[in-house]
Write a structure and sequence with these properties.
Layout (H helix, E strand, L loop, with lengths): L3 H9 L2 E2 L4 E2 L7 E4 L4 E6 L7 H15 L6 E6 L16 E8 L7 H14 L4 E5 L7 H5 L16 E3 L2 E5 L15 H13 L6 E7 L6 H9 L4 E6 L3 H16 L4 E6 L4 E2 L6 E2 L6 H9 L3 E4 L4 H8 L4 H4 L4 H19 L10 E4 L2
Parallel strand pairs: 3-16, 4-5, 6-10, 6-11, 7-9, 7-10, 11-12, 12-15
Antiparallel strand pairs: 1-2, 3-4, 8-9, 13-14
Helix pairs in contact: 3-11, 5-6, 7-8
């Protein structure tokens, strides 16, 4: 006999790998209708083409828990605004700001940031990308756009639409290839503030902010004035990169911005001729950094010439080869980051929102 209460309890006990806990502990809303033998779950992040896999896993779990019971399962997604730093309010038009940072330059932070933004979008989210590197903006090139922003009122700018993303960069406003921004720190900080607050972001689930490397004025201003929901640390396995990445990680911790995890870039080199894979920069560094800092290694990305070529051509990997193995790595990392943002602090949640309807 179909029991909504029994089905609800069985679904709530399922451990979802992306979330890292059972659905009850993560307070996933579950609605079960006994009349239609239908169950609906609402996740706080988009899962894209993983939805079918998740439903199949849930059905297998139910079959083991309740033999002979058949349930139609529906998984919905709704991204909500997460908590930000004390005394700050979410930015209009933006539910969550994600800061992508690195302790030093040359670790592939900007390439990773744009691919993560595209990956979140590919899973169904509304995503924006802010290039916060005032001195060396690279996102206009990576997005393949030389458009100039327009303004409906002379006060605010519409974001540039590129590859489906809402984007803004100082590179859209001035020719930084021949006219470098020779500005002191306060000027650069003010420019970033204007780019962020005077852009007409339109109903974004996530605004990915590509920070400049280091822990200087712009990073400090971001952490103190801008409502950031979570941060991601990009590093390579090299000891010097790990040392600087640790500084960036601790900076976010000290100002109350959650670190969602570490992403290890250039973890191995893939030979384009023979396919040989070698850890030329060392191995295990990103995982060690994450463990020492009490966070998580969200994933590793190889040093692959295609990633560089595709970004330089204005169509990054997730857009250029959406079904390829490299794009799938980015998409898995992005899903984990979104899940950690929504459910990382499970202990802070009160109780699961579960309802049953028996007819």
């Amino acid at each position: 006999m179909f029991s909504a209460a029994a089905v609800t309890a069985a679904i709530a006990s399922y451990v979802e790998p992306l979330i890292g806990s059972d659905l009850a502990s993560a307070a996933i809303p579950i609605e079960v209708d006994a009349a239609s033998e239908h169950a609906r779950l609402s996740l706080g992040f988009h899962v894209g083409d993983c939805r079918a896999t998740m439903i199949a896993a849930l059905r297998a779990h139910l079959a083991a828990q309740l033999p002979g019971i058949s349930v139609e399962i529906q998984i919905d997604s709704e991204v909500i605004a997460q908590a930000v730093q004390k005394n700050l309010q979410p930015l209009p038009g933006v539910k969550n700001i994600l800061a992508v940072a690195s302790g030093k330059g040359g670790v592939g932070k900007s390439t990773t940031a744009v691919n993560l933004a595209l990956a979140l979008q590919a899973d169904g989210a509304r995503v924006g990308l802010l290039d916060a590197d005032i001195y060396g903006p690279s996102q206009p090139l990576m997005l393949g756009s030389s458009d100039r922003p327009t303004s409906p009122d002379g006060k605010r700018m519409r974001p540039i639409l590129a590859l489906g993303l809402q984007a803004m960069s100082i590179g859209f406003l001035m020719d930084t290839t021949s006219q470098p921004a020779i500005w002191r720190g306060p000027m650069a900080t003010q420019a970033l503030w204007q780019l962020l607050t005077e852009t007409m972001w339109d109903a974004l689930d996530y605004l990915v902010v590509d920070l400049p490397p280091g822990t200087g004025d712009i990073q400090l201003s971001l952490s103190q004035k801008i409502p950031v929901a979570g941060s991601l640390i990009i590093t390579t396995p090299q000891d010097i990169a790990l040392l600087d990445a640790r500084k960036g990680l601790e900076m976010f911790r000290k100002v109350g911005i959650p670190v969602l995890g570490v992403i290890e870039n250039m973890s191995t080199h893939l030979c384009s001729n023979c396919g040989h894979e070698e850890a030329i920069f060392g191995s295990g560094g990103g995982d060690r950094l994450a463990r020492e800092a009490g966070t998580e290694l969200l994933g590793s990305l190889p040093l692959d010439i295609r990633i560089r070529q595709q970004a330089d051509s204005g169509k990054p990997t997730v857009a250029a080869e959406p079904d390829g193995a490299l794009a799938q790595r980015y998409r898995h990392i992005a899903r984990l980051a979104a899940a950690r943002l929504a459910y990382g602090a499970v202990a802070q949640l009160d109780f699961p929102v579960i309802s049953s309807v028996d007819d």
